[in-house]
Amino acid sequence: MPHSPSDPSVNHLELESWLNQLIAADQFKDYAPNGLQVEGCPDIRRIVTGVTASQALIEHAIRNKADAVIVHHGWFWKNESPCVRGFRRRRMASVLAHDINLYGYHLPLDAHPTLGNNAQLARVLGLTPDINPSSQPVTFGHAGLVWSGQCDPCTADTLAQRIHQALDRQPLVVGPAERMIRRVAWCTGGAQSMLQDAIDHGVDAYITGEASEQNFHMANEADIVFVAAGHHATERYGIQALGNAIHNQFGIPVDFIDLDNPI
Fold this sequence. Notes:
The longest helix has 14 residues, at about 235-250. Helix 5 crosses helix 10. The mean pLDDT is about 95. This protein is of the alpha/beta class. It has ten helices and 14 strands. The chain folds into two domains: about 10-105 and about 235-255, NIF3 (NGG1p interacting factor 3)-like (Udp-n-acetylmuramoylalanyl-d-glutamate--2,6- Diaminopimelate Ligase, Chain: A, domain 1); about 110-230, 3-Layer(aba) Sandwich (Udp-n-acetylmuramoylalanyl-d-glutamate--2,6- Diaminopimelate Ligase, Chain: A, domain 1). Strands 7, 8, 9, 10, 11, 12 and 13 form a seven-stranded mixed β-sheet that branches. Strands 2-6-5-4-14 form a five-stranded mixed β-sheet, sandwiched between helices. Strands 1-3 form a two-stranded antiparallel ribbon. It starts with 9 loop residues before the first strand and ends in a 7-residue tail after the last strand. Strand 8 (about 140) and strand 9 form a beta hairpin.
C-alpha cells in the first residue's frame, strides 16, 4: 500500500551513516564495498532485509513497496567482472526503476560482537563465547573472524542433531560420531579455509558454512570434528538482528525475507 506522510522515515544517507558507525564498517578491508551500494529515493519508510541481493529478493522488495534493501551479500565483489550485463543488469535495472536503495554489509556484519553473524549463530546454537579481559569475544584467524567458546558437552552426533534442529538444515559432519565435544570454534559462511586456525586453537570441533575437499583430510588427520552447516543457513541471523536494530532506532517497518539456499 502507498506510504502515508505520517509514516516514520529516515534519510538514506543518514541511515548509511548510522549503520556504518553502529557496526564499525570502516575498520574492515573487505571484498566488496560496505554501505550504500546503489542510491535510490532519499526518504526510507520501509525496508526489506535478506542474506543476498538476488533478483528474487529485489522482487520481494518491489512487491512490499520497500524503499531500501539491506543485505549481507551485496554487489561489486572484488575480482568479478565490472560489466553490467545479464543477471547483473536485470538486478540493477530493477532497483533503479523502483528507486530502491541497496545497502550491503559483509565482514562488519560477520564480526559485530552482538549483532553479527558469529554472535547470532552462537545464540541460536546455544554456544557460550570465550570472553577476553576487555569483555569482548575471543577472536582469531583472518581479520579476527573466528570465535571460540563452549557448548554443552555432547557427542559429535548430538551436536549435528542440535544444529539440524536449530538451523533446519542437515549439516555435513566430518569426524567420529562418538567424539565428545566441549570446546568449539566457529565462523559463519565460507570460512572453511580457517580450519587450520581452529586446529591451532585446540578446540574439539569447528563449525562453518561450507566445505572444501581438503577439509575432510585435515579434520581426520588433526582429530577435530568439522561441521559445514550451510553458508546461507549460518548467515541468516546477523541481518535479522541488524534489521531489528534499525526498527528500534527509527521505527521503520523492516521485513526479513528468508529465501532458502541449500548451499
